[in-house]
Amino acid sequence: FREGALQLVCEGDRPVADIARELGIAESCLRRWMKQDELDRGKRDDGLATREQEELRKLRRENARLKQEKEILRKVTVAARGAAAFAA
């Protein structure tokens, strides 16, 4: 659907607002699709391509997981030190 909408825009013989109305979507939505398509094809450099967005999401998830692991290890270390001090 998105590719078809973008193809209609690329034909360039009708205003974006008319195409959006005909497809039953908001003009702003169609313009976002246009911008993302231009980013993905390297025609713009004022945002992240889809591939870059996916990589950023993956890295953020990994970062959150590593922070959780670090916190768990910190708690285990503190608990182990407390147990060792109690045993001594």
Verbal overview:
The chain is mostly helical and 88 residues long. The chain folds into 2 domains: 47 residues; 39 residues. It is built from 4 helices and no strands. Helix 1 crosses helix 3.
Number of separate domains: 2
Terminal Cα span: 70 Å
The outline comes out as rod-shaped
Poorly predicted runs: none
* Major sheet summary line: none
Q: How many individual β-strands?
A: 0
Structural class: mainly alpha
| Count of DSSP-assigned helices | 4
Rg computed from alpha carbons, rounded to a whole number of angstroms: 25 Å
- Strand composition percent: under 5%
Short description:
The chain has four helices and no strands. The chain has 88 residues and is mainly α.
What characteristics describe this protein?
2 domains, rod-shaped, mainly alpha, 0% strand, 88 residues
Strand and helix map with partners:
Elements: H1 2-11, H2 16-23, H3 27-40, H4 50-87
